[in-house]
Amino acid sequence: MRIAIYPGSFDPLTNGHLSIIQRALQIFDRLIVAVAVNPKKVPLFTVDERRSLIQDACQDPRVEVDAFQGLLVEYAKRRGVNVLLRGLRAVSDFEYEFQLANMNRKLAPGIETVFMMTGEDYFYLSSQLVREVASLGGDVSGLVPDNVHGKLVAKYAANGKP
């Protein structure tokens, strides 16, 4: 069985992420979407909220949603998975991802990183940009799944933002 881990903060999940997930399922038999927990960052959505949003948006039984903290390669070893899937939006992503992939290879030579280009409709899209636009009352429908859009609107309304 071909299994890959697609790690990220997914704060929030965007249609660009969904594009990668859907296309990855054409290559891999199973995909673990792994929400990275970074104690140094203050996310908009909790880990449980992000996991729930991803599960609601990805109904394919071949997609498993999990969370991890610490080194990704150690998580991959624990899960018995030797392929990491990373999305690339633009050339600017490549340098960082290239360094990360080589560090992961140094730490765990048996684990490979596979890069997938984001679909042309979403190459400009990032979770950070979605949060910023949504926080200022901008319309992000069409950029995120409907369930995420609803939670974004509710989250910013609860915080007294438009």
Describe the structure.
This protein is α/β, with parallel strands linked by helices and 162 residues long. The protein is built from six helices and five strands. The protein has a single domain, classed as Rossmann fold (3-Layer(aba) Sandwich), CATH 3.40.50.620. Helix 2 links the parallel strand 2 and strand 3. It is globular.
Give a quick precis of the structure.
With 162 residues, the protein is α/β, with parallel strands linked by helices.
How is the secondary structure organized here?
Blueprint: E1 3-8, H1 15-24, E2 30-37, H2 47-57, E3 63-69, H3 72-79, E4 83-88, H4 91-107, E5 112-117, H5 127-135, H6 146-158
Parallel strand pairs: 1-2, 2-3, 4-5
| Main sheet summary | 3 strands, parallel
Alpha-carbon distance between the termini? 47 Å
The share of residues in extended strands comes to 15-25%
Number of helices: 6
Output the strand order for the largest sheet: 1-2-3
Shape: globular
**Count of strand segments:** 5
CATH topology descriptor: Rossmann fold
The whole-angstrom Rg is: 16 Å
Keywords:
162 residues, alpha/beta, Rossmann fold, 5 strands, 42% helix, globular, 20% strand
